[in-house]
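Now for our specimen.

. . .
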Amino acid sequence: MDKKKLQKSRMWKYFVEAATEIIEEEGARAVTIRKVADRAGYNSATIYNYFDEFSHLLFFASMRLMKEYTVEVSRRMNEESCALHQYVTAWECFCEYSFKQPDIFHSVFVRDLGDNPDHLLEKYYEFYPADLVDVPEEIRMSLLEQNVSKRGNPILKKAVEQGSLEKEKIESLNEVTILIWQGMLMNFLNNRIEATPSEAASRTMFYVTEIVDRLKS
């Protein structure tokens, strides 16, 4: 890496780590450009030399706090050989962690990322490659998918190959399960339902499992 790119990488990480610290101390909703700039020791305008949107900075900072989830989902999925079981297992883990850290998962998977959302995950793992160490290739393909509605596709395609799902049902299964989770998460975040994180995860998984059972071969 040349000197200019190295300097840019360092500055980028300064701001991401500053935002991550604020999330850990005060929560994701407390993060502002001014707070991040003050903590990193620069003025607010400098941040926009490295991030197109404030939402992108929040996205990267939130990703720093998802390592435990990515490690755990990889571990659990590795224990399953049936692709459809992997899909359900991945959803169980996703629900468990997303309702424990709803603001973080909202920033990564739901929040409006502006006009340039593509390749954010690839950029993140380019700067933090250690976060993908020991993640199997098949699972890595899902983790690197920015569009949450497509994250299950690699696993579901394998389920088709194994004969447990019809090809034409991939899109509907993905879409319905995503809508179930998004609806429950938004209700949970906005205090529209009375539920603990564990209860919200269980309710979501009840409906996810129901739709998987209906659509499987």
In short: The chain has two domains: 3-51, 66-215.
